[in-house]
Amino acid sequence: MSSERSRRTRKIVVRVIVLVLALLICVVLYDLYFPRTTHMREFDPDEVARLETAMWRSYYDKQRLRLFNELSELLRTQYHMPLIRSNSTAYYAANAAFVFKQGKQRADYEKALPDLLKFYSEIRKLSDIPFDVDRAARLELEWWIIHRQRAQHAPGDLDKALAELQAEIYQVPIERVMEHGRLRAEAMTIRDTKAENGGVTEADWARINELLKESWRLLAKAVKSNQSSAGFPIQTSLKISTT
């Protein structure tokens, strides 16, 4: 009798486990593959700036896990990506950043491109704005390279590279997003200059965050202006300052 009861208990436990696993698989498949469209232009620019500042600090401190978590939070809270998809997409971005970080020349830097293509491909799936995934990924990598090789570039090259990326992703004229690019580049320059001259203080990071707030506020304004005139929903870009 005791043996029979034990067998029945085991069967019930096995059935419960199978049911739970089946439900988990369904949840994962729904998260990863269920088609959805998200209008991501309604992001909070101040929150984006806060997370970008945090991501810069994580990147330069070589904190991979922290950077991954911040990217995932950005994708979930500001661009409404579901949990599992936000994590897998954040992995592509974080991995691309650290592959790039280890590079010494263009051939090395281009090893980050496959992950950037995957990142923008996942972003594109959520948005009905017809931006070019390949072009966006290459523009992202290009400003990373310009930033890394800034001593070899004229003043304003980084501003323009940042604006070109947003112009492609948001499908707006580049002139409309140049000030966003300029302010974001200024924030990067402060970080770079301070790091080269003894270190970035908390006051410096506060100034960087303020510049990024203004930058993303201007971009949000440009996005909404474009929506009212053209009706396009908007997508985001990778917000890691790489060097």
Structure report:
This protein has helices spanning 2-33, 45-60, 64-77, 83-101, 106-109, 113-126, 133-148, 157-170, 174-196, 202-230. It is mainly α and 243 residues long. It has one domain (35-230). Helix 2 (45-60) runs antiparallel to helix 3 (64-77) and helix 7 (133-148) runs antiparallel to helix 8. The longest helix is centred in the first third of the chain and has 32 residues, at 2-33. It is elongated, with a radius of gyration of 21 Å.
Brief summary:
The protein has helices at 2-33, 45-60, 64-77, 83-101, 106-109, 113-126, 133-148, 157-170, 174-196, 202-230. It has 243 residues and is mainly alpha-helical.
Keywords:
243 residues, mainly alpha, 10 helices, elongated
Number of strands: 0
Q: What's the structural domain tally? A: 1
Distance between the termini: 71 Å
Helix-strand pattern, N to C? HHHHHHHHHH
**Biggest sheet, open or closed, and with what strands and sense?**
none
Mean pLDDT: 85
**Rough shape?**
elongated
Q: What would you call the structural class?
A: mainly alpha
Low-confidence stretches: 228-236
Helix content: over 70%
Strand content: under 5%
Radius of gyration, CA atoms, in whole angstroms: 21 Å
Helix tally?
10
Topology:
Layout: H1 2-33, H2 45-60, H3 64-77, H4 83-101, H5 106-109, H6 113-126, H7 133-148, H8 157-170, H9 174-196, H10 202-230
Helix pairs in contact: 2-3, 2-10, 3-4, 4-6, 6-7, 7-8, 8-9, 9-10
